[in-house]
Specification:
Layout: E1 3-8, H1 11-18, E2 42-47, H2 51-54, H3 64-74, E3 79-83, H4 91-101, E4 106-107, E5 109-120, E6 124-138, E7 141-152, H5 156-160, E8 172-184, E9 190-208, E10 211-230, E11 235-252, E12 255-259, E13 268-279, E14 282-291, E15 294-299, E16 306-311, E17 314-325, E18 330-337, E19 357-364
Parallel strand pairs: 1-2, 1-4, 2-3
Antiparallel strand pairs: 5-6, 6-7, 7-8, 8-9, 9-10, 10-11, 11-12, 11-13, 13-14, 14-17, 15-16, 17-18, 18-19
Length: about 375
Amino acid sequence: MRYKNILIFLFCLSVDILLPGCDSTGNKGKDLAKPDTSNAEIKNIVFFGNSLTAGYGLDSSEAYPALIQLKIDSFHLPYKVVNAGVPGITTADGNSLVDAVLDHPVGIFNLELGGRFNHHNQYGNNFTYSFNPSYLIHERLKLFVNITSGFRAPSISELFGPFGANPNLKPEKSTTQEAGLQTMSRNKKLEVTITGFNRNITDVIIYEANGYENRDKQHDYGGELEAGYSFNERLSFKINYTYVDGKITQKISGKDTSYYNLIRRPKNNTHLFVNYQPCKNFFVSTSLQVTGKRTDTYYDPTTFLPSEVALRSYALWNLYAQYSFIKKKLNLFVDAKNLTNKKNYYEIYGYSVQGLNITGGIRFKI
C-alpha cells in the first residue's frame, strides 16, 4: 500500500478537512454511509509542533493528535496520524528538525511561522517575525522561502566602552529574504541546494575614525551553491560556493551616497570536502578552503587616517581523522590545519597568520 504525507501545522484546518459536518446535500453526517476504504490510498497526517502537540504531561493516547486519530477511525477514513511534536521546541529547533520529520514524501505545502516580542528599557517595544513556507514538488525537488526580521540593540561596549563609545547609538533593524531549491538524483547519490538572499539593515552600526556611528542603510545580497555526491557508503564529496556583495548608504547634503564596505569579507568563497570511512570505527576527511580577494582598512600610525588596502586570495588545505573505540563512546582525533604551512597572506592587514597547526585529543561520551 502506497503512503503519502500531508503536513498540517494548524489544528483548526485539520479538523475542518477531516471532520466535515455535512454531506453534499447539507444533511448532518450522522446518517452517512461508511465509505469503502479497502483499496484507498493511506495518507499520513503529520502534526509537527511543540509540547501542545506532543501532549507533554499526558498519556500519549490523550494528546490531541491521538484523539483526532480516533475520530478519523470512527469515520473509516484512510488517514494515519503521526505525532511529531517535540516538547520545548523553538522555531530555530523546528527548522533544524523538519528534514527528519519529512523523511517520507510530503504532499503539497507546509508552512512555519514564528514571532518574538522584545521590550528594551531604552529602545522600547520591538517585534520580529519569521515566515518559512516550502513546497515539495515531488520527492526529489523542494522549493523554500525564508522571510525574517531582526532587531539588535547596541552593546555595552558600543555605548560606553573605552574605544569609540557612542551613547547616542540607535538599534539596528533588519529584514532578510531568502529563497532556493533543493533537489537530488533518482538514486539519491547527488544532492544540490541553490540559495539566494537579500538583506537590508537600517541604522547599521559601524566603526570609523571617530568611533561607533549609525549609517542609514546596509544592503547585502548573494547566493550559495552546495552540491554533494556519495560514491558509496564509504566515500563522499561535497563542494560549497558562496558569493556575497553589499554596500552602505548614507544621506549626505540631501543625496544618497553608497560604497562597498564588507571589510575582510570575500565576495567569493569556496570549500571542497572529501570524506572517507574505510571501516565503521575510522573516519578521515580532507578539505580545501579557497578564500577570495578582500579589502581591509589600514590606519596610518602617524596621522591615524584610514586608507583601503587589498588582501590577496589564498587557499588552505586541512585534514581531520578520528578513530572510535568502545562502541563509539571513546573517540581519538587529530585535526591538522594549513598542511602546507602557508604564511604569505593576511586575514587582517598587518597581522601575521598561524602556519601549520595540529591539535589532537580524546572525546568520551557517557
